[in-house]
């Protein structure tokens, strides 16, 4: 296929409708790529990308057409974040988190259809869910803020931000330590806990306007990872949110999660697709450079040396490893009818996330080794990718935690199978 789209390198069996949506992504890649180096150096999200993605209709990529979106699915999102990751990983990451907001609309609606809400709860839940989707489709950028600096020994994400009822709405207090598009998004879709609750039944969601009184940005983020993703996080100091800008039905959050196909809210693999796009780019650039440059004494390409051949072979294996895990997870989370029970899909993701991100990091490490001292610069593709992909090793959870959970699931299931009740002879 002569006009193969970048996203098809990951999702290689696109339907024509998926290709139409992928063409929209392809059209913005040159501008993302052109701004990537400067954005990384300055550690600042290119604000022009908001209008660029909005005008392309991509802020509604995974919103159903009935709500004004493009009608894409997780396949479209994975292809999009992969493609953007080859051009500007920071934008791919921020775009991913915007699209995770759609789960706050899609999953509650599915939970309603599944009969998980009472009759008196349905109007409130439906109104909030539809507001999420219609705002995204209209070009509103939503930053999805859940993570916090507070840690729990029993959960990947612990929520300490509190919501207290006040006249006409709610007051929010807390701090969100991680969330792309700080100071960029129109609204921060913020997860908090109802005052007085200490379980997940009290988790609730709010639309927090970027310029609302009491909202402030944390100190500029200067860490490993995508530096131009506006990843500062926010502080909330008695921020007032009107009643109709909140979903505060107790238990709504946990009920909607029952509808996801596997990973948390069902779209987490798309963040690993962004990392894989970054790995694909550093692989392509490194191969091109090593085959173009030659040894002064022999005239042979540098890529032909035994050392470089070994490194290139390892990079290729690692990149294909990332693809294999991603494609398998994508199949499990999108196939109709489902191929595996939800628990198996979840278990696969706990293994797959770490396997993908570790493989991607190894691609960047190989590029760094193969590029030598001339590539040991943060302005080089290898240098930036090495730092960007390091974040994937810890994002949400490291590979070790995922594998521990898988081992516990497997061994506990086996232990249970070893015991049975029998009648006395």
UniProtKB/TrEMBL annotation:
Gene3D superfamilies: Acyl-CoA dehydrogenase/oxidase, N-terminal domain (1.10.540.10), Butyryl-CoA Dehydrogenase, subunit A, domain 2 (2.40.110.10), Butyryl-CoA Dehydrogenase, subunit A, domain 3 (1.20.140.10)
Principal location class: cytoplasm
Keyword Flavoprotein: yes
Residue ranges constituting the Acyl-CoA oxidase/dehydrogenase middle domain according to the UniProt record: 148-239
SUPFAM superfamilies for the chain: Acyl-CoA dehydrogenase C-terminal domain-like, Acyl-CoA dehydrogenase NM domain-like
Pathway: Sulfur metabolism; dibenzothiophene degradation
InterPro entries in the record: Acyl-CoA_DH_C (IPR013107), Acyl-CoA_Oxase/DH_mid-dom (IPR006091), Acyl-CoA_Oxase/DH_mid-dom_sf (IPR046373), AcylCo_DH-like_C (IPR036250), AcylCoA_DH/ox_N (IPR013786), AcylCoA_DH/ox_N_sf (IPR037069), AcylCoA_DH/oxidase_NM_dom_sf (IPR009100)
Enzyme class at the top of the EC tree: oxidoreductase
EC annotation from Swiss-Prot or TrEMBL: 1.14.14.21
Pfam families: Acyl-CoA_dh_2, Acyl-CoA_dh_M, Acyl-CoA_dh_N
Keywords per UniProt: Flavoprotein, FMN, Monooxygenase, Nucleotide-binding, Oxidoreductase
Limits of the Acyl-CoA dehydrogenase C-terminal domain: 270-390
KW Nucleotide-binding (keyword) present: yes
Reaction catalysed by this enzyme: dibenzothiophene + FMNH2 + O2 = dibenzothiophene 5-oxide + FMN + H2O + H(+); dibenzothiophene + 2 FMNH2 + 2 O2 = dibenzothiophene 5,5-dioxide + 2 FMN + 2 H2O + 2 H(+); dibenzothiophene 5-oxide + FMNH2 + O2 = dibenzothiophene 5,5-dioxide + FMN + H2O + H(+)
UniProt domain Acyl-CoA dehydrogenase/oxidase N-terminal: residue ranges: 30-103
Subcellular location: Cytoplasm
Family listed: Belongs to the DszC flavin monooxygenase family.
Protein's recorded name: Dibenzothiophene monooxygenase
Protein's organism: Nonomuraea corallina
The organism's taxonomic lineage, starting at the top: Bacteria, Bacillati, Actinomycetota, Actinomycetes, Streptosporangiales
């Amino acid at each position: 296929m002569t006009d193969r789209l970048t996203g098809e390198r990951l999702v290689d069996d696109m339907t024509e409708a998926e290709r139409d949506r992928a063409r929209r992504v392809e059209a913005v890649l040159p501008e993302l790529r052109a701004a990537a180096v400067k954005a990384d150096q300055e550690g600042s999200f290119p604000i022009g990308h908001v209008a660029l993605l909005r005008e392309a209709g991509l802020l509604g990529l995974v919103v159903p057409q009935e709500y004004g979106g493009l009608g894409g699915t997780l396949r479209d999102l994975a292809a999009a974040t992969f493609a953007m990751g080859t051009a500007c990983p920071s934008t791919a990451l921020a775009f991913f988190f915007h699209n995770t907001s759609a789960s706050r609309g899609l999953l509650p609606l599915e939970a309603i259809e599944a009969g998980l809400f009472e009759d008196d709860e349905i109007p409130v839940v439906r109104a909030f869910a539809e507001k999420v989707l219609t705002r995204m489709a209209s070009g509103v950028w939503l930053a999805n803020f859940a993570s916090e600096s507070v840690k729990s020994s029993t959960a990947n994400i612990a929520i300490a931000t509190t919501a207290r009822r006040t006249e006409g709405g709610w007051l929010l207090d807390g701090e969100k330590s991680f969330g792309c598009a700080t100071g960029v998004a129109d609204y921060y879709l913020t997860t908090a806990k109802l005052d007085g609750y200490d379980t997940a039944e009290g988790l609730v969601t709010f639309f927090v306007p970027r310029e609302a009184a009491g909202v402030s940005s944390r100190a500029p983020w200067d860490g490993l990872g995508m530096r131009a993703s506006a990843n500062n996080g926010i502080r909330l100091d008695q921020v007032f949110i009107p009643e109709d800008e909140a979903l505060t039905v107790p238990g709504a959050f946990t009920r909607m999660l029952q509808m996801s196909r596997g990973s948390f809210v069902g779209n987490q693999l798309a963040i690993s697709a962004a990392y894989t796009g970054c790995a694909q780019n550093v692989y392509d650039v490194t191969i091109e450079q090593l085959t173009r440059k030659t040894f002064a004494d022999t005239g042979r390409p540098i890529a032909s040396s035994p050392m470089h051949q070994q490194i290139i072979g390892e990079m290729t294996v690692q990149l294909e490893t990332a693809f294999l895990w991603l494609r398998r997870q994508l199949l499990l989370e999108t196939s109709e009818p489902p191929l595996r029970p939800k628990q198996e899909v979840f278990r696969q993701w706990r293994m797959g996330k770490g396997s993908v991100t570790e493989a991607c990091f190894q691609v960047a490490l190989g590029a760094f080794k193969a590029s030598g001292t001339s590539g040991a610069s943060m302005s080089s593709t290898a240098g930036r990718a090495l730092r960007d992909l390091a974040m994937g090793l810890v994002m949400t959870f490291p590979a070790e935690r995922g594998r521990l959970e898988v081992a516990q699931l497997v061994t506990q299931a086996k232990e249970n199978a070893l015991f049975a009740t029998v009648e006395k002879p």
